[in-house]
Specification:
Number of strands: 0
Distance between the termini: 48 Å
Order of helices and strands: HHHHHH
Strand content: under 5%
Number of domains: 2
Structural class: mainly alpha
Helix content: over 70%
Largest sheet: none
Length: 156
């Protein structure tokens, strides 16, 4: 119970502060954010309840969640760390692609027996590469920060 209530609080706070306040209503008052947080808890709880009823075993649900997270954020993190030309749009497109492919593969191509993270990870990485290569390049400031981070540490 302590784990789930913590996850609910973190998720609702992240959605209220990082998504709602940052992108939808920057001028939102604290009381409004509190209501958004509460509504988010209800929605997340409902989604969790549906997963519990129809999701299969705990191992199946964890495997599905890991595939979604791994395929969405894994390539984005790796490209961001190791490829200077990784762009914001490339990362966003890759995250969306990874998540969508996991859901589609799990629901329509599971009969192949291939764990959904594999095609989703590959397609996410491909989309990040293509969108970053063909689209707008990262700013000079971002490229300079990348170059600074990639310099080897010198023992002083």
């Amino acid at each position: 119970m302590s784990t789930i209530d913590s996850q609910l609080l973190v998720s609702s706070s992240a959605l209220a502060q990082d998504f709602y306040k940052s992108l939808i209503r920057p001028e939102a008052a604290e009381s409004e954010l509190l209501w958004v947080s509460r509504l988010t808890v209800v929605i997340i709880t409902f989604v969790g309840f549906i997963f519990a009823l129809y999701g299969g075993s705990v191992m199946d649900i964890v495997s599905y969640a890991w595939a979604g997270l791994g395929a969405s954020f894994g390539p984005a993190i790796l490209f961001s760390l190791f490829w200077q030309k990784t762009s914001r749009n490339g990362v966003m497109a890759g995250i969306i692609t990874g998540g969508v492919v996991v859901v589609l593969w799990k629901n329509y191509l599971a009969f192949t027996g291939l764990y959904e993270i594999i095609p989703a990870f590959i397609l996410s990485a491909l989309v990040i590469y293509l969108v970053s290569s063909l689209g707008e390049k990262p700013s000079a400031q971002v490229q300079a920060e990348f170059a600074t981070a990639m310099r080897p540490l010198v023992n002083e």
